[in-house]
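Notebook B, p. 112. Complex prediction, attempt 2.
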Amino acid sequence: MLDKTKNDTTKIEAKRTQEPIVVRFAGDSGDGVQLLGAQFVRSAADSELNFFTFPDYPAEIRAPAGTTFGISAFQIQFNSDTVLTPGDAADVLIAFNPAALKTNLTEVKTGGLVVVDEGTFNKRGLKKAGYDADPRDAGLGEHQLLSIDISKRTLEAVAETGVGRKQAVMARNFWVLGLVLWMYGQNRKPVNNWIDKKFAKTPDVLAANKAALNAGHAYGETMELAVQSPASPLHVSEPYRVITGTDAMALGIAAISSLSGLETFYCSYPITPASALLHALAKIGSGIRTFQAEDEIAAVCAAIGASYGGAIGVSAGSGPSLALKTEALGLAVAAELPLIVINVQRAGPSTGMPTKTEQADLLMAVFGRHGEAPLPVLAPATPGECFDIMLDAAKIAIEAMTPVIVLSDAYLANAAEKWIVPDAEKLPDLRPSRDLPDESNYHPYLRDDVTLARNWIIPGTPGFVHRIGGLEKAHDSGDISYDPNNHDKMVALRAEKIARISERCPPAEIETGAEEGDVLVIGWGSTYGALKTAVDNLDEAGHAVGHLHLRRLWPLPRGIEKIASRFKKVIVAELNHGHLRRLIRSEYLIPAEALNRVSGQPFKIADVEAEIHQLLNR
Amino acid sequence: MNEIALSAKDFTTDQEVRWCPGCGDYAILKAVRKVLADIGRPPHEVAFVSGIGCAARFPYYLSTYGFHTIHGRAAAVASGLKLARPELDVWVVGGDGDFLSIGGNHTIHVLRRNIDLNLLLFNNAIYGLTKGQYSPTSAIGTRSPSSPEGSADSPINAASLALGSGARFVARSADTLQDHLPEILKRAQAHKGASFVEIFQNCIVYNDNAFGPITDKTAGPDVVVRAEHGEPLIFGKDREKGLVFDPERNQFKPVVIGDEATRDQIAHHDETSLTLAQALAVMDGPGAPMVLGVLYCAPEATYRERLPENYRTKPLDRSALSDLLLGAAASR
Ligand code: SF4
């Protein structure tokens, strides 16, 4: 029953909206909130809507039920128009229990709607969440409250299906899904299809989930809850699919082998949040070889061994993983072998906050090796770009015979968006040249005049047996050399080889906003959506603000200095204490300002706007 | 396939060998070159991967493909190489620091995975290249620059560790035993799966004579049992001693044949028995000899053979890639 004293939904009006909508689900890790989110996405994608999701979950697999530290949340922003972020704040929060309300209320917009499961707001639930009194009694301030006994209604709905109580309670997420699909005028069919497939082996669970879904939907209908359905999006003719950064990266890795004709050898050791990539690749199976190594060092070393053997070695991990791989990266630099090392960055230092996002590994990626060991560093900006960046990384690695680091992060890895599937026929050819040099003067450090890459001759090739290794070698014979001048020359050669990569890559370009004017905002990686939206907003408001977003962080693309010179001020926005800012300052002697936040959470658009405003007014 | 007979010279590079004069590594290099020639695979089909240390210089002196990597990680690099190029004959060379200390983890795992590699541990019970510190196989009380009063660590028994890690081929030999080492190396190479050979190697500079008289022509036979499959475990200059199982101590003990036991009571070697191999590997006590030879050889499916079929598939062609990319895509 709707408790009229606690609920006030009169302010909700039915409308067909052009405005993006943000919905947030929050509950215990075991409540199936992430699954609920994923199913809502399924429905939104089916309607061709655009969206961006943000799964925000704890490191604990199953924290004690009802506690605040075990709360898992899923936020989605959807619209008919382009969507670049999960949204600063939610229009609607659905809290599965008091702890979820407590930890997530701050994520709701002023005037937003909060739906809670009344059935969990008992003494025990409140106490576990640390509430002295029922927060609903005093009202939720500016927010509207809708208190429904979701637990009871779910149990009633599934009573006929014969599932046990535990399974029945588990169906709450489908009840909520039904309700939300009603509220946003979305179709239940894609979800029903999924349920049919997923639970084919357990007909009672299948029936219970469907019953709960339908009951939630019917509840919205009978209660005449306002429907706010997004305007129809522009029809897309190309095929599209829902993709997370992790899945896009996995497809990118699979594509490398296909486009280069080389086997892709993916080696890693489980670590949050990068493990998901290993799972995704292991599932693809064909054309990719996965190897779960005994530790991070073995993972990267096996990848190096595979590259030595003529495959493309790829090794992924998160934060601490890259730290452990630094020595091996130095070997790949010295041996001049192609290799791709992915770092799905997470909040550090040390174990930090393993499931939370951060960009604080940039300087480690660029400089974190002993000796002079330059290597290229790339960073995708969106989940979909995680695909493209892998092809870029492979191209650079093969062309320059160098290890490449790709910096993704926890946010990008988990976020999902609508992805226009690229046409496989139009993807670049990554096949390396396999022309053999002249056998008589051969040595393994003969270089290409343009790229300075050494030749890549695969063990097994007759007539070219050679030895490589980490010891310095003579530039003109490949033999071990301790000659001072030779070392100086080799260090310079290796640096020049990396520097030349930017000559072959497109120059930096303004992403959005003004081409010249007051403030240039420079960003990189997953902050793309928030920065672009903030700059778009400022631009619309008439400010001369431009946004430059870097995908190539080392070597830096050409043209940054020129672009920066057209603005009065430069500010570098990143989720760390100024890594890219340091690079920009030291490379170009530009007095770049900092816009930093290191909270484990992505930027909020409003915060970015406010800081740029401040700079404009200074 | 290989019509032209190869000689040790075919496996020799123009690089000047830089070990200390008298180092046991020279003898091992000689044995390996001979074995490679006898096996007869052309040099370009063979690869040597090493870590860091005196032993790890090995690839530079062999005219095969070679990769001198980083300390302790040779087994991991070689795993990647072998999985990418299964047709190559891949050897891993390292010392006791490389294999058992900094790279101990990789040794354990490469063995249990049973990747088809030939692993040669040059055990000299000392860190040579870093100038003589005690190593993971040094005896307790070893005096060295880092343990002037004698080391406190107890040594690892490499063969026992290998057996415990699930190795399916474990053997022991010594550097200068040219009538023994080459045969052991050939067996190791012929074995499908990871084969582990511990070679006692004399570091003449920092740990001379660490393994006592086992390579000594006169004293050797009294302290070494050369285990051969199906043969009695007999030793001694006049083959007058043997090993019997001592039920009181639940392990093998040396006896004088005819005196303490009859010839029939002498245990026979069975290289397919893990229990026997472990017992021989860890044997100690008064007068206990060192057991050399193939302690254990019990082939099993290799890592590659155990992998699912699709793991061995070639890169996807563009149309297969297209299908993969489309996946669950909506096409309208
Ligand atoms: S230090 Fe010892 S092991 Fe190293 S080369 Fe010299 S003798 Fe051989």
